[in-house]
Amino acid sequence: MKAGFVNIFGRPNAGKSTLLNALMGEKLAIVSPKVQTTRHRIKGILTEKEYQIIFSDTPGIIEPKYKLHEKMMQAVKGALEDADCAMLIVDVKENLEEVDAIFTQLKLRVPAIVVVNKIDLASEEKIKEAVAFFAARPYCKEVVTLCALTGINKKKLINTILKYLPEGMPFFDGDDISDLNTKFFVGEIVREKVFELAQDEIPYHTAVLVTEYKEKESLVKITVDIIVHRETQKAILLGLKGSMIKRIGTSARKDIEAFIGQKVFLQLFVKVKPKWRENELQLKEYGY
Fold this sequence. Notes:
- By secondary structure, the protein is an alpha/beta fold.
- The chain has two domains: 2-162, P-loop containing nucleotide triphosphate hydrolases (Rossmann fold, 3-Layer(aba) Sandwich), CATH 3.40.50.300; 182-285, 2-Layer Sandwich (GMP Synthetase, Chain A, domain 3), CATH 3.30.300.
- It is 36% helix and 24% strand.
- Helix 6 runs antiparallel to helix 8 (243-260).
- The longest helix has 18 residues, at 243-260.
- It starts with a strand and ends with a helix.
């Protein structure tokens, strides 16, 4: 039996969350074409007879601009300290030298597999260049190429990972797929819909707080506060005659029902909390 922690690092939008979901066969991490969607460290627990791999999706590596960013980068730092193996994911079209500088700064003490992602969008020449470039880096044990969005050779990737994991007993029960509770994932689904449907900078000024999660006989009653900085942002999220918040709610409810396998009554409220991204107490309240 092999058991260990595999932590996924990369720049924003390299495809970390998409890869985690593909490996798990379950949507645990929200995804969006917008950068910096992931704010938390999300663990996915994959258990089979021969192994248990605990994958950890981390926020994209950025220069912090305010306290929320600092909290996100603390999650990355924490992930560096408890990995048995690292997966360094890179978009094949990115500037390879810049990505290499970031991976080098991580100062990894564990074996690293470099995952060259989005190969469906690149020429053979570009893919070969990226593979050769990272294969020569001192932190890199192996290079794997794939497209996380269109499908991965899961067995092949798992077998590559298992080479670098220690033998040991499982850390979690076989039925667990994450160390986070259902309320967390409900909040993330709502936040994903804000990223999908709201324009411009609104998603980056938004936090989500699940204030009620009650299981009744026929359905689950869920109340969620969507937190924004300003009244103008609240007006945009509500939309004309509540049209935007209805779209967010309808889309989120469908995904939550699919996730928990029960009917849901979902209430959304938009609340204004100025400068919440800089407020230590509010950041803690919203789970950061």
